[in-house]
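$ fold --in a.seq
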Amino acid sequence: MNLPKRYSLLVVTVIAVTMFFGCESNFKEVQKINFSEFVPASDADTVNIKYTDSGRITGVLISPKMLDYSNLDFPFTEFPKGIDVTLYDKKQKRTFIRGNYAVSYKNTGIIDLIGKVKITSEEGQVLETEQLYFDQKNEWFYTERKFKLTDKKGVSYGQGIDFSKDFKVINSQRISGEIESDEEL
């Protein structure tokens, strides 16, 4: 009578082990399905994008590489090999922007420029820094990093600056350098 009891215990154990390993294999497949990879929705080489407003060109963006992550919850576009942007104001005056790397966040309209960022206006004003943000909606640049600003009045250095895209309004912090001023003391 012991033999059939042992035999049935052995059969139950074999079935349980088989089911366990069979379920583990399926469980790993289910995990793979639920795992979302960080993969761009699109990938483009040699990009030349023109932005318009009412038929008027407001900007031109050129980049050797663009990765579009619009498939994520917080969508963004990455330019891992840098960007070269020309912005146009209503009078078609240009502002030139270069950076070694950039990320444009779709929900906020903020562009993060990183690495040897250089902005030049048609009037000859040049701002250089290592990181700069651009608020597209308000057409406003800002950084808390060190910067160098060169214009007709001289060269100034500082840490922390924000300014309009046409350089007409500039607010700088912790600034040093020689600057000519039209204001009388």
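$ fold --in b.seq
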Amino acid sequence: MALLFLIYGLIIGSFLNVLIFRLPLGENIAFPSSRCNECGTRLKPIHLIPIASYMFLKGKCGYCGKRISPQYPIVELVNGILFTLIYLRFGWSLESIIFAIAASLFIVIGILDFRYQDIFNVTIWFGLFIAFIFLAYLQFSNGDVIGNILSGLAGFSLIALVIVVTRGGMGWGDAWLLLIIGMLLGPSLTAFAFFIASIAGGMVGTYLLVSRKMGRRDSVPFGPFLILGFYVALLIGQEAVKAYLSAF
């Protein structure tokens, strides 16, 4: 079953690349069919096999010979690994399917936010839809959804406060993203995810400042770090929180 999750993750990862390329351009994500970004030639099914096609073509278009961005196999591989880890963590369940879909969506959000410093509305709406589906699942399975709702609202309010106080130090997309993460993870794991995001963001920001690759007035998108925190909290957060609490 883990192998099946890996294969599905690789296939969906290929579709994520379509979203990452087409959403900023405002293009239809279904039509036309996949094509080379350089020469525009329609790709054959053999060119669309995740990872294998990139290796077979040696990272070049089979028609014009232009180099294919390594983003394509990397996204496919990362998504496949995430799907596999989620299955190993949660088993075969509706919960694992929801988390796998959310993990895929967050790859798209993270890359687009890194490139454009913008979280697109369509990804937020879909993320909220996933979160509400998860809340419905929790309601029917154990009836305890209040904590998840409150953690999402608390996360949103925290980012909103930062935006107001700093007058734009963060973006509203970050607030909506943390709302989604909070509804998916619940109180303790959301706090842990935010802690990981803050530490990672602080370390990267400090490095960029010290190395003079970024000025003091430049900004680093926080969305990718929130997403990193989500992945870490989802996969090992329970154990990390328990270990921390047991130390006191």
